[in-house]
Each structure stands twice: as C-alpha cells, then as structure tokens.
Amino acid sequence: MSERGPVMLTRKRRSPLKTTFFCIAALVILGLLWTGLVWWKIDSTQSSSLSGASDVGIVLGASMWGDSPSPGLKERLDEALKLYQEKKFSSIIVSGGLDKPGNKFTEAEGMRNYLVDHGVPEAAIILENKARSTYENLLFSQEIMKERGYSSAVIVTHQYHGMRSNDIAKYLKYEQPQLGLTESRTLQMKYHKPREVLAYTKWKIDELLLWLGWK
C-alpha cells in the first residue's frame, strides 16, 4: 500500500495547464456546434406560404444612405411592394429610427418616401420612428398593431434575417407571424451571415436576461 499510494496520488493530479487546455477545447467545440446549428437554422428559414391576407406588413429597417434607403433596404421595400400589390396586406408599418445623427430622415421616413414614390398611398403607411434594433422593430410595431386592432402581420426582411425576426416575434407572442423574405443581390453574405450568427447569439442571451427580469 505504501508503495502504490504516491503513484495513485500522482495520477489523480492534473496540471493547471492541461485543465485550461481541456476547458478551451470544450468551449471551442461547443462554439462550433452552436455556430453550425444557427447557420443551418438561418439557411432553413423560408417565406411563409401567405395563402390569405394579413392585417399589416411590417418592413424591418436597415441603413439609410443619406436621404435614401440603402440598396439592401430597397430590397426589403421592393419585397413589401410586391406583397402589397398582391394584396397580402393593405397597410404597411415601416419601422426604424434615426440611422445616423446627421441624417434628414429616420429609416421609417425614408422607407415611407420610397413606397410613396412607387405608388403606395401615404394613408396606407404607418411610421414607427423609434426602433434601433430588430427587437424594438417588432416590439414597437406590435404596440401600433394593438392600437389599431390588427392581429395578423407579415414581417418583411431579408432571408438571412428571417429566423431571428421570427424567433423574436414568437417571444413577443405575435399571433402566427408570417414571413415575407427576399434574397439579397447587394449584401455580402460572407459578412452578413457570420454577423447574423453573432446577433442571434446575443438575442438568445438578451432573451434569457429578459426572462430573468435583469433587462
């Protein structure tokens, strides 16, 4: 017993360096698995069938280029125009606050101007001028829906952004939210998809903090 004791004690010890290595390796593996899962969920999200008409379409804001919507935002607006012309909804909420302090228009005002220039009556467009994030886009638009008695909505955005938007809408208890998604010909997906993985991860952390009442 006396001869084996020191050997057994030596085997039970693990150096701090090895422990750190195993922890880092485990975190890297978990991170890769999470990234793969989120990437797959992003790619799997598609537009809803939209067989019937909804009360309103909600166009989620994106950056302005000066006084005009950026090419990426125009893609979302063109999708909203198509769905509006197909009578998938008769009213449109355009949601987005001031993109940059020096801008003349908020995202919502820039979107309104674009839609009016393309034939949508101004009376059919509702401005949501405060939102600074996807969560706020959907939260503040939901408040407008409640004020106007709307219960159904089509959320209009890019395909890569659809999964997170739908997840947030479900968290906010939208009534069967529909998605109107467009692929982008102007945005670089090698940048935007990895960024969306990070944004979705941040949202899930925020969701936990909201559930705990810490935010």
The level of helicity is: 40-55%
Succession of helices and strands: HHEEEHEHEHEHEH
- Strand percentage lies at 15-25%
Average pLDDT confidence is 92
Helix/strand-derived category reads: alpha/beta
The strand order across the widest sheet is: 5-4-1-6-7
| Number of distinct beta strands | 7
- Choose one word for the global shape: elongated
Provide the low-confidence segments as ranges: none
How large is the radius of gyration?
A: 23 Å
Tally the helices: 7
Largest sheet: 5 strands, parallel
N-to-C CA distance? 58 Å
Structure characterization notes:
The chain is an alpha/beta fold and 215 residues long. The chain contains 7 helices and 7 strands. The chain has helices at 4-12, 16-44, 71-85, 107-117, 134-148, 159-171, 189-212; strands at 54-60, 64-65, 68-69, 89-95, 125-128, 153-158, 178-182. Strands 5-4-1-6-7 form a 5-stranded parallel beta sheet, sandwiched between helices. β4 (89-95), α4 (107-117) and β5 form a beta-alpha-beta unit. It is elongated. 34% of the residues are buried. The mean pLDDT is 92.
